[in-house]
User: Which sequence fits this backbone?
């Protein structure tokens, strides 16, 4: 497994401000806070109007996690603007997760084990209601992992996110749940959700 830490990730201030508010369902694409509706601002407005987008609905990674979190939902929306402004905007929204928990987000070669090449692109944290949102600025559509020694090029066209703390999944999986390397400190829990058969371009 190859894990590539990305150097070009920027979480928007708008997304950070939304944590702690309630988040509407996947169909609306809106984030609700304090009774008003706030749209996540991604990319430049001029590019946003014309840019194509891709949306993936993530699924719970295992039946055991689905049983523990029966209302878990997550949606990824990518605004494809690399050709016009040299970067894309990746928005992840999630509902029905473990409250007040950090998750790490990756672009991955394969949605499930053994995942293949993986690129760490950012984090999000759920609020007291188990809802979370964040926006990352990076190249998504043309992202690739490259082994210069081989040389081999791999396109990470799937998405997954993991419990950042290896103990955060213990309430569902028990104290002997696997510790994985899917965090910056090399110690994370299991994958919570992934994009399944849906693929990024």
Assistant:
């Amino acid at each position: 497994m190859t894990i590539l830490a990305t150097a070009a990730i920027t979480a928007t201030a708008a997304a950070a401000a939304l944590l702690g508010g309630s988040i509407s369902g996947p169909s609306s694409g809106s984030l609700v806070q304090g009774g008003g509706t706030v749209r996540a601002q991604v990319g430049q407005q001029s590019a946003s109007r014309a840019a194509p987008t891709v949306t993936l609905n993530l699924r719970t990674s295992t039946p055991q996690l689905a049983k523990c979190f029966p209302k878990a939902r997550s949606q990824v929306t990518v605004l494809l603007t690399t050709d016009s402004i040299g970067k894309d905007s990746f928005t992840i929204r999630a509902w029905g997760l473990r409250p007040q928990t950090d998750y790490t987000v990756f672009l991955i070669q394969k949605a499930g084990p053994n995942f293949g090449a993986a690129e760490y692109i950012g984090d999000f944290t759920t609020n007291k209601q188990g809802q979370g949102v964040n926006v990352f600025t990076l190249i998504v559509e043309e992202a690739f992992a490259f082994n210069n020694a081989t040389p081999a090029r791999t396109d990470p066209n799937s998405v997954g996110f993991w419990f950042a703390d290896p103990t955060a999944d213990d309430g569902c999986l028990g104290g002997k749940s696997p510790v994985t390397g899917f965090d910056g400190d090399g110690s994370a829990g299991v994958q919570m959700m992934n994009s399944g058969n849906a693929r990024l371009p």
About this structure: Helices lie at 13-18, 45-50, 63-68, 82-85, 170-173. Residues 3-23+51-158 form one domain.
